[in-house]
Amino acid sequence: MAEYTVRPPVCADDRWYPASPQALRQEVTDYLDHAPALDLPGDVLGLIAPHAGYFFSGHVAGASYRQVRGRDYDSVVLVGPDHRGLTFGELAFPDFDAWHTPLGDVPIDRELVTALDQRLHLRCVRRDSEHSLEVQLPFLQTALTGFKLLPLMMGDPSPAVCRELGQAIADAVRGRRALLVASTDLSHYYPYEQAKRLDQNTLKYVLDFDPAGFAEALTRGAALACGGGPVAAVMFAAHALGATQAHLVKYANSGDVWEDKSRVVGYAAVVLSTS
């Protein structure tokens, strides 16, 4: 019998997010409680959420996850960028049977892993310290119950790969109750007002629900997002599953909570839904 493997939390260090289960659940609950609940016309198929430390972006992530609080999904497909080069420019799956946070274990959806691997030949990563995926889990664990997880790291954000991944995700989850999540921050280290202008331009592609235009804009630097590839892939997937609208729930940057406004990072909460 194969060994049952669990990915340990590497961000539960009281810097990215609290190590105490009680403190973590309370902080995430507070973010959800203080976020607006949109009156959406259809079903929520996808979310875009930031992945900085909770002090900086937790209030924005909470605004995204507030829109699915209490909803029932079988599976969550979570796509994030590769910050540390572990994918070697490919698509990768952190190969564990479950992911652990202070709030408990999240089981991996092996059926979805197999379905995607048959289409895309995922690179297996058996040790990682990627934060863009992990920091989303406490929000998912607090907002939802009973779901299985498919975590993916994206090393190649080219338009062709974004489209291929999006279609493969859509085909794999079709007929399931699935939530698609893209993990991204926006512009990095520009002055406060300039960052707001750059992020507004980036978000225009997202809010126009133009995954092809967004993916192309990323390649020429007309859109800025460290998880731009995951966003485009999730948009392609959500569109293939019937989503037609993108709703901005909240925008902020690190200068809104930190005194240094000379080099800020942008964050957005976006919901992708049917009409």
Summarize the structure.
This protein has 275 residues and is of the alpha/beta class. The protein has helices at residues 21-33, 54-65, 110-120, 131-134, 137-143, 159-173, 192-207, 211-219, 228-240; strands at 6-7, 44-49, 75-81, 91-94, 98-101, 104-107, 123-125, 148-154, 178-183, 188-190, 245-253, 264-273. Helix 3 (110-120) crosses helix 6 (159-173).
How does this model look, in words?
This protein has one domain (6-273): LigB-like (Protocatechuate 4,5-dioxygenase, Chain B, 3-Layer(aba) Sandwich), CATH 3.40.830. It has 9 helices and 12 strands. The protein has helices spanning 21-33, 54-65, 110-120, 131-134, 137-143, 159-173, 192-207, 211-219, 228-240, and strands at residues 6-7, 44-49, 75-81, 91-94, 98-101, 104-107, 123-125, 148-154, 178-183, 188-190, 245-253, 264-273. The longest helix is centred in the last third of the chain and has 16 residues, at 192-207. It starts with 5 loop residues before the first strand and ends with a strand. The mean pLDDT is 96.
Could you name the key traits of this structure?
275 residues; alpha/beta; Protocatechuate 4,5-dioxygenase, Chain B; nine-stranded mixed sheet; three-stranded mixed sheet
Name the overall outline: globular
Please identify the structural class as seen in this structure. Answer: alpha/beta
Biggest β-sheet description: 9 strands, mixed
CATH architecture: 3-Layer(aba) Sandwich
Between the first and last Cα atoms, what is the distance in angstroms?
A: 47 Å
The level 1 CATH classification is: Alpha Beta
Topology:
Layout: E1 6-7, H1 21-33, E2 44-49, H2 54-65, E3 75-81, E4 91-94, E5 98-101, E6 104-107, H3 110-120, E7 123-125, H4 131-134, H5 137-143, E8 148-154, H6 159-173, E9 178-183, E10 188-190, H7 192-207, H8 211-219, H9 228-240, E11 245-253, E12 264-273
Parallel strand pairs: 1-5, 2-9, 3-8, 3-9, 4-7
Antiparallel strand pairs: 2-12, 4-8, 5-6, 10-12, 11-12
